[in-house]
Design goal:
By secondary structure, the chain is mostly helical. It is 74% helix and 0% strand.
Length: 27
């Protein structure tokens, strides 16, 4: 349930795996 409460964190981790610098982290 922790992951569901923090979808942003999951997206950031997934983005880092595919992209070197996701836009979510920059903003």
């Amino acid at each position: 349930t922790k992951f569901a409460a923090r979808p942003v964190l999951v997206l950031t981790l997934a983005g880092e795996d595919t992209a070197p610098a996701p836009p979510i982290r920059e903003q």
